[in-house]
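anyone seen this seq b4? input:
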Amino acid sequence: MKVPFAPPFLASEPRATALLPDGFRRREAWRAEVDARRAQRMAPEVWSALAAQQQPLPRSDARQRNVEALSRPGTVAVVTGQQVGLFLGPLYTFYKAATAVVWARALEAETGARCVPVFWLQTEDHDFAEIASCHVPPALRLALPDSGARCSVAHRGLPSEVESLVGALCDALAAQPFAAEILDPLRAAYAPGRPVGQAFAMLLASVFAEEGLVLLDPRCPEMARAASPLYTAAIERAGEIDDALLRRGADLEAAGLREQVNVRRGSPLVFFHGDAPDGPRRRLHGDGVAFEIDGGGRVSRAELLQAARTSPLRFSCSALLRPLFQDALLPVVAYVGGPAELGYLAQVAPLYPLLGVRPALAAPRARFRLVDARTDALLRALQLSPAEVEAPRDELIGRLGRRGREAPGDLARRLLGGLPDALAASAKKHPSLARAARRTQVSVETAVSRFAAQHARALAEEDRTLVERVDRLQASLFPGGEPQERVHSLPFYAAHFGLARLKSAVLGAIRPGEALVQDLLP
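predicted toks r here
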């Protein structure tokens, strides 16, 4: 049975590390990668575009210093990225950014090289439904309406409905002690008409202003021109790329590992937007001479290559091409990714030498379970660890319900003990006591049955309490059968613990080179 790539990789199993090196664990690999990247410079046009992208963001002297550092020789970067989810999307977005910050600090301390944390805004994606919602514990879901357009989210503005969502979020968090710390920058960022990606960038930049996190949006003319050689190669060498990916798929299968992305032979690793950059994002499929456009239409290879060279913003990267673009564009020492991204990197590893790009170190993002005081009290009452809550609900309830429990029937038999046999023996030896023995047995059995029924009712009440407690725990730590970090959004926890306090706790707990799930009570 095939398993996802990330768990064996994080456990340093040879079947996984043979396909993607785990240099993130070794400081000598850190130093080697920094030495190799120091000579790589950002193109002046790309740096200018990056600097301009910081201007609409909340002011940060630390970010400005980091942007200026990227223009100088010898500066390196740690990059992470994510789709631009509503109100920052799931918690793991926050953890990715924090991990990049800590990695940059650690590399700078280890090597002396200036190292900058960069967050890559995945605004090229078109799946709006995937980024349009925010989940607030225990069960509030806020979502933007989806028009169904297939253009990249970079070209979509916030609809008027965002005002009511901000209002609903403010109402939901009003009772939390530190709500203003997150709601003030959130209100400033999420205004009707503002581009979705820019609103996300403004809020994330505010959260990490002190740390100088740099935000990069690839969906601009300058970045597209820098990507043009990669787009061209993806089209010209599509057959070679297909062969390399299919061989890697066979390697993964032989190791019992699952491909993160299904490879479609004949589909270049680029999306085509038709006549205009804000057009629908479509997949291509063809034989190398001509390509069918998903959704209708046909384009020749020559036309595609001409467009890739002269109007590259009509293209965007697939998930498998994006890591190579990042590593070609920036002096990336380490790329911080979650389980899915680690799977992508394992798949595309053979493409790096094929396309002449140097791969960055694959660094896993930090993973946390945030535990508030009420949840901690419930865990203690049930003698559970947070990890144990991540079990199927019925299984967990059944296991807890059996702890030290005696079934009503077993209780009745234990209470009666040897009484029936003793009464029968007495009646046999003294027939005159037979009626008295029968009355005594009936009387005692009735009393015991009545008590056993009361015991059963007490157990049922205990079960109801147990179920309520388990449901509250799972709503906090394992909502909907998913890890907390994949469902819940940052605003609730920032409002509950305090943004500064929560960020300090998370940054202080991250250990570059380690790959653990940590329980955190800020």
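DSSP finds 23 helices and 14 strands in the chain. The longest helix spans residues 434-477. kinda curious what u guys think
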